[in-house]
């Protein structure tokens, strides 16, 4: 039986139907990814499911006692207190007791007051009567698991840490269905990977909205798409969904072409001369009226943005050269001993944890900051466009049109004059939307607007700081194609792993210690190269201490047990890889999810364990093989 069912749900907000009779079922074990273009109602649907909004029509059926928790994409305004207070507030009625107990116990540890001790005893009794001790332990368990400090002030946290706190607040009530709205926004790659692992291991049923294709690919076992007021559900993973959706869209185009052809033929028939009217079939006339009405009510698929870049004159061959560059804030090293050369046409990705100094690195490479040591040399004829992740180049009090036109009704794009309204329509802003203030735009619309504003100017160096936040899949694909065709130089800060893989040719990785390392290729290429280095480390090819340890062991041969272990390693690894392949094939089969239930979680947990066992097995194999070779050499 489904945990929750939506039947014929309708919602319009006074305009065209946002939901026009949609149906959806969520069952235990579903990891359902909700997709759709910006503005199709994904966030609204989450609010309907969580109970924050009522539908205008239709029915929502929930299992008795069903608990649903929503983590919105925006941090709620006015949320204050310690991390413990915020997380405990997800407990409902017991939250005030828990928060006060935690606060009093903290004060007691500092002051040792008799009054505080008496108050603490009173709170203990109340917690015992209400079963609050279990809830207190649950809060502390979640704080440990999510690596959160109970006494930190929520307002002082980074955006990514705040999202973790809100996740803990949602989980503390032990929801049957967890709803996540754009959970990867403003998180760094390490945190996104951590979130993926956490959800796969700990959360059985989740419905999430995301623009992160790698996140959707790894986490989802079902896909649902909102399109023109309708819901289309697919019992498959992300990649198969993309193929099936393309096939459906092609079929729709063919069906509409046949419909339009038939309508045109009937219009010709009804407008024929007197002879045709004398023999007119009234049933055919009624059918024609029905065809006209069907075409009038047909909702066309939202168009694709027509983004174009204006390219300036070619820059010099060398764009920027850094030699032993270091920079610090308040004596805290941010960038240390950076040496790199960026040539014309390079597409460089920049990745690293939040707060590691990626934006500082950009500003150093652009000459906006003076290094404390080392030298930065800039190339000639640089025309730089800067996409700011905070969108501070937009004036929220002005309209879309005013932000782009800056008082002009006409723009010059690639040498040709264009009216600003027509230009904005290329970025999917209708004439009405173009006159709206920026303050009412969604995050995705603001990103599109910033692209529209920037691309009115020519450039040969494009700097993009987190451009993919809130963009839908179609606009992301288009932006990827645009950047691949761009003949200038690209510097791209992004936490979108697939975007990096598809666009950049090299990657600068900023470490926590401020050191910047350069790798060929995108995110996955960096992972492979870093993994190879780690394997070398385990095999003893780099660290001095491992080399010394093996030299000390060189005098002895492998023991009988180690000989047998070495002989059995290939067979063990082959068996582990075979089991891994079987699990991958099973999880890739859509039919598996129909009756899998809890097996889905079990299989994914086993996959995680297999990956760790394989890494350990390869390490042990190399270790034994190296020891064997050294004993022979001795």
What order do the strands of the largest sheet run in, or round the barrel if closed? Answer: 5-6-7-3-8-9
Helix tally? 22
CATH topology label of the domain at 318-523: Rossmann fold
Q: Based on helices, strands and strand pairing, what is the structural class?
A: alpha/beta
Give the low-confidence spans.
Answer: 536-556
> What does the main sheet amount to?
6 strands, mixed
Instruction: Note the gap between the termini.
Output: 68 Å
- Any guess at the CATH architecture of the domain at 318-523? 3-Layer(aba) Sandwich
CATH homologous superfamily descriptor of the domain at 318-523: P-loop containing nucleotide triphosphate hydrolases
> Quick one: CATH class of the domain at 318-523?
Alpha Beta
How many E strands?
20
pLDDT average, as an integer? 81
Structural account:
This protein has 634 residues and is an alpha/beta fold. Among the domains are: 75-174, no CATH class; 318-523, Rossmann fold (3-Layer(aba) Sandwich); 540-633, Helix Hairpins (Orthogonal Bundle). 47% of the residues lie in helices and 19% in strands. The strands form five sheets. It has a six-stranded mixed beta sheet, with helices on both faces. It has a six-stranded mixed beta sheet with strand order 14-17-18-12-19-20, with helices on both faces. Helix 21 (560-587) runs antiparallel to helix 22. It starts with a strand and ends with a helix.
